[in-house]
Amino acid sequence: MLSEDQINRYHEEGFLLVESALNTTEVAALRAAFERDCEVPGPQRITEDDGVAVRAVYASHQRQPEYAALLRDPRVLGPVRRLLTEDVYPYQFKINAKPAFGGERWSWHQDYIAWRIADNLPAPRQINVGVFLDDVDEFNGPVIFVPGSHRAGLVRDDRREGAKSELHLDPDDIALTAEQLADLVAAHGMTSPKGPAGSLVFFSPEIVHGSAPNMSPFPRRLLIATYNDITNLPSWTGEPRPEHVVLRETRPLVPLEEPFLASLEGAAR
Amino acid sequence: MLSEDQINRYHEEGFLLVESALNTTEVAALRAAFERDCEVPGPQRITEDDGVAVRAVYASHQRQPEYAALLRDPRVLGPVRRLLTEDVYPYQFKINAKPAFGGERWSWHQDYIAWRIADNLPAPRQINVGVFLDDVDEFNGPVIFVPGSHRAGLVRDDRREGAKSELHLDPDDIALTAEQLADLVAAHGMTSPKGPAGSLVFFSPEIVHGSAPNMSPFPRRLLIATYNDITNLPSWTGEPRPEHVVLRETRPLVPLEEPFLASLEGAAR
């Protein structure tokens, strides 16, 4: 349950960090599930140029029960329903493994413009939840927010000419200009939520954010689950984006009554 | 004057931050002198690919009296003489302007190996002084140190095969491997000194360091002056590096008796 102060901060700043929401046993279970999921071949698994190291995996909740349950965990789904609306479903689910010494930076952007362009999402009725699978510090490529930047709506509402791909929208294609960002940062500053593995960060689809490279010698894994209002479904005039990128199961999620791991253990008994 | 505690910390950690050593009037004078120096054409001025924005300028102290005096300022030269040896001269002087949204990251490296390869510097008898011409925070590409990493000597003592240039040693050419850095970071961690414009950071030529890109929408200017022991001069078997990169005036610097700006004003009276 979020406090009134936390709810106000989310709406004011566009994000909310909840440190160490998951305990170390739960984090270990999620890491093990990710390791297993990295072994599953398919288009949902994106590798680095070497073809071996996994950079990202989509839709792990379709294969790994820990992630299916985590999406319904009261500590995750509860705040989402409180901050957005009661009936939500997972629109996108991905785990990024930002490699040591790299992972490149992500340009400053707002998520919603990408989803409107690619999937005709009618409104910014989403919440992202970042789940730290590793400790996040200033050196391993944390997400950086411009707090409060979500309140002005979309800074740009088009995409770059000659964008790289129709299916995948690169942050570069929707990046803010230096001038746009300079104005926002002068007004609002920058901040990046950090914390131990197991921390959660809820953030708005309209908050301006970017990400630095991972300067550390260790990979850094981050799950991002995006929940969408079930009355705000995507649609396509042409080819829809792949099912592992834009999830098709849109029935509203029902919260578990206990933490995800306890729930799985209960089901196994 | 450094305290005993500061001296011990420098030797223990390989760097020492002195916050706000210079006041805002002094910083403004240094910035103005840099702006003037950016107008001076020549090989000492390195521009971005656009040929306009200045990325770095070498040897500004040869053209701008503020920088010539700063090199002898008791707050700068005093600690250098206390930490290294009494008779030092400036071996290299450069100002980097890390551009907004970029400046790329610098690979993890130790300075001394570069200087030994390029200039036959006999020993790591140098001290770097970083002078913050802008506020440095976690977002605008701060230098990151592995504290204590200077005490083990050189981690690698060769350069990469096929290095880019004989004259300019890119950090990539002498970069530590992920494994080397992982061991060091596991033992020592990482830290990056931050502070307002006018802060100074003294650091060892053997400390392992890197630098993230500048994620902010504002450029960030950093002066790095490297002092060398006058008994430790460079020599070349082939073509020496250019005079603006490796300074040839090796007479020992005499400290000013007052801060650099007051000294210049005194001289003008």
Description:
Two copies of one chain form a homodimer. Chain A is of the alpha+beta class and 269 residues long. Chain A has one domain: q2cbj1_9rhob like domain (Jelly Rolls, Sandwich). Chain A contains seven helices and ten strands. Chain A has a seven-stranded antiparallel β-sheet. The first copy, chain A, has a three-stranded antiparallel β-sheet with strand order 5-9-7, with no helix packed on it. In chain A, a hairpin with a 6-residue loop joins strand 2 and strand 3. The radius of gyration of chain A is 18 Å and the shape is globular. The first copy, chain A, starts with a helix and ends with a helix. The interface between A and B is medium-sized, with 22 and 22 residues.
What descriptive keywords fit this protein?
Phytyl_CoA_dOase-like (chains A, B); homodimer; 269 residues; Jelly Rolls; seven-stranded antiparallel β-sheet; three-stranded antiparallel β-sheet; 7 helices; alpha+beta
Strand order of the largest sheet of chain A: 1-8-6-10-4-3-2
At the first level of CATH, the class of chain A is Mainly Beta
Q: Give me the count of strands of chain A.
A: 10
Tell me which CATH architecture of chain A applies here: Sandwich
Q: How much strand of chain A?
A: 15-25%
Low-confidence stretches of chain A: none
Radius of gyration of chain A: 18 Å
The general outline of chain A is: globular
- In DSSP terms, counting alpha (H) and pi (I) runs of 4 or more, how many helices of chain A? 7
SSE-based structural type of chain A: alpha+beta
Please name the fourth-level CATH homologous superfamily of chain A. q2cbj1_9rhob like domain
Query: Could you give the distance between the termini of chain A?
Result: 28 Å
Give the mean pLDDT of chain A.
92
Give helix and strand order of chain A, one letter per element, not per position: HEHEEHHEEHEEHEEEH
Oligomer: homodimer
**Chains forming the largest contact:** A-B, 22 and 22 residues
Count of spatially separate domains of chain A: 1
Main sheet of chain A, how many strands, which sense, barrel? 7 strands, antiparallel
Organism (chains A, B): Streptomyces incarnatus
Protein name (chains A, B): Phytanoyl-CoA dioxygenase
